[in-house]
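QA checklist item 7 of 12: single-chain prediction sanity check.
[x] sequence parsed
[x] length recorded as 166
[x] structure emitted
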Amino acid sequence: MNRNRITDLNMEIKPLAAEYDAALAAIIRSNLKAHHLDIPGTVYFDEGLDHLSNFYDRPGRAYYVLLRDGNVAGGIGMAEFDGFENCCELQKIYLDDAVKGRGIGYELVAYIEERAREAGYRKIYLETHTNLQTAIHIYEKAGYGEIPRPESVVHSTMNRFYLKNL
């Protein structure tokens, strides 16, 4: 039987709303700092990080927060990606330290892939950094294949690139 860890741990997934922006930005910055990626060329310094709900409030984009007892414990998003035909980018999968190590990352990846399929995307791309070994493990186990750096990369510090057919 395939159990849902998110439900088992009394967590829920909800669409991102402005009320979650600050908590989500704090989790993202904390994760990046812990992996020595609080540097230019990462999302850490993105101008819109404190207002992600504005960025994702467009067709073809979506972001979902993971709530634990009503508090933001992480999230994952997707947005159009012009580097490949019918492709979106898996974006900003981050978890609070309190919920890591429970397999939730795998479930969030599967969740966003299903949302991407529903939105009509046929491929999903992502970029990451060598410092994020746990994330790389999740991506590779979920069937993402490493590819050369696409020309359209925005975050110049990212050095690992993956693609998966949906």
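[x] summary fact logged: The two ends are 24 Å apart (CA to CA).
[ ] second reviewer sign-off
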